[in-house]
Amino acid sequence: MTNASGKIQMNICYISSIDISLPNGPGVNEREFVNILQNECRKRGDNLHCILPMPSKAVDINVTDASFYKNEAAGKALTHFRLTVNSIKLIRAFIRLLPFRAQPLFVLRLSPETLMMSLLLRLLKKNYYIKTLEDIYGFASKGPHRPLTRFNFLVKRNLLCLGLSKAVSIDACTYQLVNTYQKRFGLRNIIHIDNTVNIERFDIQDKAESRKRCGLQSFKKIVGYCGGFPSQRGAAQLIQIAQRLVKAEPGCGILIVGDDTELGKLKHEVRKKKLGKWVVFKGLIPYETLADYINCLDAGIALDTSEKVENVGNSSQKIRQYLACGVPVICPENTHQDLVDQDLCISVPVHDLDAIFRAVTHFFKLSVSDSQAYQARARQYAVQVLSTQHAYEKRYQIWKKVFSQDLS
Q1: Is 66:51 a contact under the CB 8 Å cutoff?
Q2: What is the pLDDT of residue 408?
Q3: Residue 93: which of 64, 115, 71, 109 has the closest Cα?
Q4: Which of 40, 223, 228, 271 is the most exposed place for a label (fewest CB within 10 A)?
């Protein structure tokens, strides 16, 4: 199908089981992907329809031409029952849509709920592309050893293999995941496409104004983490080195945005060490205000557990958001070598407090001119390499090729 200008006009159907209103990593990833997907389809004259769970919270993008289904939330039903119900609801939404869409290219965000959808598309001999493949069922780890659990694991593995093998292409956001799926499933249709950042939402702001808006204007320098699971991603280490940081840089502060089940222990440690004057916990904040808090930082940390770094890699969206806002980044060792090579990131062993302290104080001591130069380089790199537009163009070229073959 071609439009009035003679260009190929694609019919794209995007299917996901992830709530785009959630402020966690997958939810943010989906929100920004759906946003760029809609914008680019309008710009290019492509037809789009999305099948998504009904948002559980208010969301700041208007999703048009979409079918929403009610997703059973975690904790409201037994896991297997909930996944089955959600899969059935998604498939029903798909079946209602199918007769009205001509020759669509299906794009899937694969999850336990959408796995059956990939098998159905395979059965119907429909082309489908898998976007942002994660560590489904923990296949990047060693797997369970108990016989019954091992049996369930192998059944899921075989089902997943069926779903993956017929995809026209698959992308994953870390090289570790690409390598794991290539080795364990023999995949040759998987490529690396980095997680991305909305460069319009995340941009460089005046630091003094950002701190005033966020109530942090009393600090001269700030290091922090802004996102999900802070206790696993650098907050614990920052609190451990807080006394050293305050001594080395009087007037500095530590900002921790986000929440998890272990954060109570860190707050207790802060009270015990009488660090409350320097450590600020902001808890959960609206995603729409996140850029304000990131722009308060002189250094942003985005670590992970050593096990996750080894098995899955680090695909933290925080890093992309920090860079888009011109904030220096501290990441785990053996990850993001491209950013380290560009002097945009300092990588550290996740448990090496001395290395983390040196990285933070290095960024604290940057001169005004060096800080401005870093901001400009970081922003440019984010725009050119890490933007949602850049990743969309990579995927689009694959989709266009597949869609053209379907028409021929």
Answers
A1: yes
A2: 53
A3: 71
A4: 271
* Residue that the structure tokens 């260009």 belong to: 7
Domain count of the fold of the chain:
2
For 132-148, write each residue's pLDDT tens digit.
999 887 777 655 555 54
Residue at 274: amino acid letter: K
CATH number of the domain where residue 269 is located: 3.40.50.2000
Q: What are phi and psi of 63, to 5 degrees?
A: -90, 110
CB 381 within 8 A of CB 323: yes
> In the block, which residue shows the tokens 């996102």?
227
Contact status, residue 362 vs residue 332, Cβ threshold 8 Å: no
Same-domain pairing of 30 and 94: yes
Using a 10 angstrom Cβ sphere, with 0-12 exposed, 13-18 middle and 19 or more buried, the burial of residue 61 is middle
Q: Whose CA is closest to 66, among 28, 23, 96, 102?
A: 96
Shared domain for 256 and 189, answered yes or no, is no
Q: How far is CA 327 from CA 235, 283, 309, 345, 401, in A?
A: 17, 21, 22, 10, 38
In this structure, the answer to whether residues 249 and 377 fall within a common structural domain is: yes
Q: Are residues 367 and 266 in the same domain?
A: yes
The Cα 70–Cα 212 span in angstroms is 40
Q: Which tens digits make up the pLDDT trace of 308-364?
A: 888 888 988 999 999 999 999 999 998 999 999 999 999 999 999 999 999 999 999
**Is residue 15 a contact partner of residue 51, using CB atoms and an 8 Å limit?**
yes
Percent of the chain scoring above 90 in pLDDT: 68
| Same-domain pairing of 117 and 139 | yes
Instruction: Give the H/E segment covering residue 66.
Output: strand 66-69
Question: What mean pLDDT is predicted for residues 223-242?
Answer: 96
Q: Which two tokens stand for residue 259?
A: 């929440």
Clarify whether residues 403 and 372 are in a common domain.
no
Tell me which residue of 204, 379, 390, 389 sits closest to 291, measured CA to CA. Answer: 204
Evaluate whether residue 201 is within a structural domain: no
In-domain check, residue 202: no
pLDDT for 4: 47
| Secondary structure of residue 364 in the 3-state scheme | helix
Q: Which domain holds residue 324?
A: 207-385
Per the structure block, which two tokens stand in for 373? 């130069």
